[in-house]
Design goal:
It is built from two helices and six strands. The protein has about 140 residues and is an alpha+beta fold. It has a single domain (about 5-140), classed as 2-Layer Sandwich (STM4215-like). Strands 1, 2, 3, 4, 5 and 6 form a six-stranded mixed sheet that branches. Strand 2 (about 40-50) and strand 3 (about 55-70) form a beta hairpin. It is elongated, with a radius of gyration of 16 Å.
Length: about 140
């Protein structure tokens, strides 16, 4: 059983996402500023549960938003190529989130939404949000 703090889970998430070679930039913040694509940002969105085992221990389920981002137009890149890179990055991120997380969590689940258009400072982008839930043992 894992007994990790929110800080160690966040660090593990950042390290694992940074290891995804299909992503060109990863940041642990709610930012809309990226220089390389496909890009990814991750951030805490809430606590999914606090399941008490006894008076000294409980399981906490932390919920993180993981956004994969790709502009609709990238200089010197065909739209079809950009779309393929975006899809490959989503697949690789899901593969990473679905792997064993024994170093920081006891159980995790990735819920995937739909791709949506957004207007960012750099122009229109495609974004998909994955909600990654990390359940870990917490001792008082």
């Amino acid at each position: 059983m894992s007994n990790d703090s929110l800080s160690s889970i966040r660090s593990s998430l950042d390290a694992n996402l940074s290891a995804v070679t299909q992503l060109k930039e990863v940041t642990a913040a709610r930012t809309t500023e990226f220089n390389h694509f496909p890009a990814c940002r991750h951030y805490l969105i809430g606590l999914g549960g606090n399941e008490f085992i006894d008076t000294a221990t409980n399981y906490r389920t932390w919920r993180f938003g993981v956004d994969v981002v790709m502009p609709y137009a990238i200089k010197d890149m065909a739209k079809e190529t950009a779309e393929a890179l975006f899809q490959d990055a989503i697949d690789a991120v899901l593969n990473k989130l679905d792997t064993e997380w024994a170093d920081s969590v006891d159980h995790s689940v990735a819920d995937v939404g739909n791709v949506r258009p957004e207007d960012w400072p750099m122009g229109p982008v495609a974004v998909i949000t994955i909600v990654w839930q990390a359940k870990t043992l917490h001792a008082f």
